[in-house]
Amino acid sequence: MMWLATYSTSAHLLLFLSCKLPFCIYSLATMQACVELATSVGEMRTETELLPQCWEQINHQYEERRLLVAQSCGELAIYVRPEIRDSLILSIVQQLVEDSATVVREAATHNLALLLPLFPNMDKYYKVEELLFQLVRDPSGVVVDVALRELVPAVVGWGGKLDQILRVLLSHILASAQRCPSVSGVEGTIDSHLRVLGEQERWTIEVLLRMLTELLPFIHQKAIETCPSIDPSENYISESSLKLYATGETEWSAFEWMHTECLPDLIKLACLLPAKEDSLRTVITKYLLAVSGRYGKDYLEHIMLPVFLIAAGDIDSGDFTYFPLSIQSKVRGFRPKTSVAEKIAIICVLPLLLSGILGSPSSRQQLEEYLRKLLIQNTKDGSFSMHHTAEIIDAIRFLCIFEEHHGVIFHILWEMVVSSDTNLKTSAAALLKALVPYVGVKVASTHVLPALITLGSDQNSAVKYASIDALGAVAQHFKSDMVVDKIHIQMDAFLEDGSHEATISVIRALAVAVPHSTDRLREYLLTKIFRLTSAPPTENDIERRRERANVFCEALRALDATELVKRCGCSRPCTQGGTRSYRPGKVRRYAGEHRQGNGGTPWDRDLCQQFLRREQSAWEERGWRAARPCCCFCSSPGGLTNSAGEHEVWSHNEGWIWRHVARQSKGR
């Protein structure tokens, strides 16, 4: 008998050791053999002979063996006694979810979901819940996907503690943001309320919000099942059910949870997120849209909309007819109570109101009306939007992330563009500038540019200069020849105005766009700088002349730092000492000519000397000194070398800009 027991143990061990690295077909064959063996030998021998072999492989050096153990947990659970399933097998799974290999944690997650229905009781519920939240927050997206898709429904179905999971989930979501440091340590400021999220915290909040979305079908089903007036066959909340709820005569806690617990906590989370956290705000928006899609239009209009209106600070628009008196006071408490809180609400909650509530397919008409109210109708002093133009523009910028709302937004924008109100036109230009990164070239050509050209022809200087900044944003994001041509024409019109402010605005807007624009636009900018600096200055105001000089210097610096043609002034590849060397030919050549008195006015030479001093100081601080010309063909100023004599590989503009300046100097 002793010999037989030893032989059986050896046979079990051979199942795991049959292949050094059990890939694919070998793993499948091994698992099939384990299942057949467990079927043949019965529960006791599976527990005493096969499971110990699994346990011994947990810390094996090869992840393929550990993966095999993870797979065996779900497959063999049915062949052991119930009390073993939630003790030994759960202990094996618990250790495997800590494994360093992603594939092992993924398999452990999948098999834990298979294991749960086989547990005899709920004694291990809180341990399983702890594993659930650990796996949902796993650093690997693959493990998270399996946990959300398989483990979350399995735990809800097995444990039946949906309320408990939701309570812990919302607590984790808020805690993940609250423990992050404030943007500013100055008490009483907006930034002191906002949080700087690290990558780990951002990932955690995102996956927990995804988990909340995965739980939404269970939340909705429970609300439907516990409704005193809904036919179980219906799957939405009707207006008649809301009227019954508003009387306060029936208790409907599963229904109330959404607008008394969940939505307020999401609003609290939103009020911790800086404006740049568009990714998390998008996840919240998608959850809100999913809620309205399941609960129905009536719930969206009569429950969700008033909650977010009051939380966004728009206290006059909320209708509380469908709220019981006991809940009305709680919802009214979401109203921001200080000026700082009001501004935070507009920054953080208004984007969700526009995109997640009014952005629902059933509320498009309301969205257009509300945008018109925000941007056009409320122009009188003291209105909701009068003193928060920048925050409202940022909220609409977030709304523009969703392409389906572009039509509504640009329809309202055009009404602002053709308005006679100067403030509306200035706001329209600022809004167009904010929306440019979120539209395609077609929308830019058919909507953005025509609106900006119309604003650019306005007699009011503030409107005109605001449109120049927006055109610079268009130049920065689009490289289409048609778009660039339109920008050239409009900028020429601004420069023909001849005013100091127009010139400064054009050069500054184009200089900002230079690193991301086309060669044609860079050449256009250089041409304008050359012509403007060649003309005698008409300004007697020293401050204006200094501002003009500074803007031109910054534009030259921006041009000098772009990478266009990696050639020297002779149009040949620059080599020196066997190393390719790219020289700062064009802009420094241009500046050098004026420094030597070969062209331009005394004021212009002062400008170029200022530019050269800035550039030389900047490079000398980094350990570089002037170098000799790179080759016998090139007479352009040399590059820079470091203390070891090594040539810097310039990423500066070379051949074509040098030749362009030479042609301009000769009057071609």
Describe this protein with a few key phrases.
668 residues, mainly alpha, Leucine-rich Repeat Variant, two-stranded antiparallel ribbon, two-stranded antiparallel sheet, 66% helix, 1% strand, globular, HEAT, RELCH, ARM-type_fold, repeat
Brief synopsis:
The protein has a two-stranded antiparallel ribbon with strand order 1-2. The chain has helices at 2-17, 24-41, 43-56, 63-76, 82-96, 102-115, 125-136, 141-159, 162-178, 199-225, 239-246, 253-270, 278-295, 297-311, 325-332, 339-348, 350-357, 364-377, 389-399, 406-417, 422-435, 441-456, 461-477, 481-496, 500-513, 519-534, 542-560, 585-595, 602-621, 655-665, and strands at residues 575-576, 579-580, 624-626, 640-642. 66% of the residues lie in helices and 1% in strands.
